[in-house]
Backbone:
């Protein structure tokens, strides 16, 4: 009877609980059902917030105005809840004056201490000095 009813409506007959006595079935549009399931799965994935990391690049001789502008961007990222990686790149003979880079990153850390916490202190990796700042919770 159920199969005839489903064909009459132009829909499909889906078995909901095959182990029940008698088996439970449902008349539905199976294509639409599959589409809605895939949509549910997709919206569930988009609700998760993935960990983001923004990167700001500096040089040892970055001028004050440019540095202020980059600090303003770092604060904005941290306010949005995004981790920020600050990369200070040395070129050529600048490698002999690493203390300039350390003082620059210390100044950046001092300016943004209200907005974020230093997750990784400045460390030298090859020709780059890297510091990671996470937002305050």
Residues:
């Amino acid at each position: 009877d159920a199969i005839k009813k489903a064909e009459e409506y132009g829909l499909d007959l889906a078995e909901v609980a095959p182990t029940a006595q008698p088996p439970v079935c449902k008349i539905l549009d199976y294509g639409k059902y599959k589409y809605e399931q895939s949509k549910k799965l997709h919206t569930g994935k988009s609700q998760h917030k993935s960990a983001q990391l923004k990167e700001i690049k500096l040089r040892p001789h970055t001028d004050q105005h440019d540095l202020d502008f980059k600090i303003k961007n770092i604060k904005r990222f941290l306010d949005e809840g995004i981790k920020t990686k600050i990369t200070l790149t040395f070129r050529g003979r600048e490698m002999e004056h690493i203390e300039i880079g350390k003082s620059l990153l210390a100044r950046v850390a001092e300016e943004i201490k209200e907005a974020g916490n230093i997750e990784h202190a400045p460390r030298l990796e090859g020709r780059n000095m890297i510091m990671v700042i996470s937002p305050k919770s």
About this structure: DSSP finds four helices and six strands in the chain. The longest helix spans residues 30-47.
